Amino acid sequence: MTQHEPKRRTTELDRYRILQRVYEGEYSVIFTALHNLLGAQMALKMLAMGAPEEMGPALLQEGRIQSVVRHPHVLRVTDAFMLAGQPVIAMEYVKGQSLADYLEEGSMPEELVLSVFRGIARGVRAIHKRGIVHRDLKPENILLEPNGRRFRPLVADFGLAKILEPGKEPTPRGLSTAFSLLGTPEYMAPEQAADPGRVDTRADMFSLGAIFYELLTGEVCFEEEDDADAMYRAARGEYQRVQELVPGVSPALAGVVHELLEPRVERRTATCGDLLRQLDQLGARD
Questions:
Q1: What is the CA radius of gyration of the chain?
Q2: Is 137 exposed, middle or buried (0-12, 13-18, 19+ CB in 10 A)?
Q3: CA distance 236 to 185
Q4: CA atoms within 13 A on the CB side of 168
């Protein structure tokens, strides 16, 4: 496959001037860049060298999905263009770090936890209102933009997202049929591990529970060296309860987490609206 990254001597891509590489993954790379006419700093995402051919259409689909959601807690895609037959998407540039990077440095102060989590939940609610299932919510895909003494969290990376069709059952499509496992085992709902193509927005609710658990306790809920072990524990609801790790947490707040992490989808907190109302009722406002 042709390498689509800028060569060392190349500083211009379409109408953008490349600044630096900020991320390199298995399938994609991200550069910061300046728009030649507007002078605005953006982030450009493109395929990594050697990425499977089917990832090209998937990246374009990612950009299309992400571009339709306009919300303060969702990373915006503002532009796209083709380079050597493959898409490049331009995204809002966020000066900050991921939630995963932040948590690697230590736990989040208690006064920030609810503020950050509510922002994430609001972003996911906006996504779900557009009929989109993210399918890969995790700390690595949450960006934190400094905002005074707080952060503005933004939901990012829609590479595994799918669109639900109103009135129809979720069906396998696109990447769902190309790969046997979609998502990150430590944050994945049991039904997604079983059949990623047929999940609905409730799979994202489970992932939100795993993120909230980590914010409150500083521990990854289903962390295992073996992916199968992590998925097995999630399916059986086997994890150390929040109160055991944080004795001072209110039972009601811990209960919010446990309801999100319910393995049986019909018993899980169903929507972000329900989740935010639960937090409101507990007086957990940001």
A1: 19
A2: buried
A3: 14
A4: 9
Amino acid letter, 163: I
Query: Which of 136, 157, 227, 229 is flagged as catalytic?
Result: 136
pLDDT score of 202 more than 60 = yes
User: What's the chain's average pLDDT?
Assistant: 89
The three-class DSSP label of residue 77 is strand
Q: Which two tokens stand for residue 236?
A: 């059986």
Confidence (pLDDT) at 11: 81
Is 136 a residue of the active site?
A: yes
Task: Decide if 82 contacts 125 (C-beta within 8 A).
Answer: no
Sign (positive or negative) of CA dihedral 49, 53, 54, 59: positive
Q: What does 142-173 look like in DSSP terms, one character per residue?
A: EEEEEETTEEEEEE---TT-EEPPTTS-----
Contact indicator for 212, 221 with CB cutoff of 8 Å: no
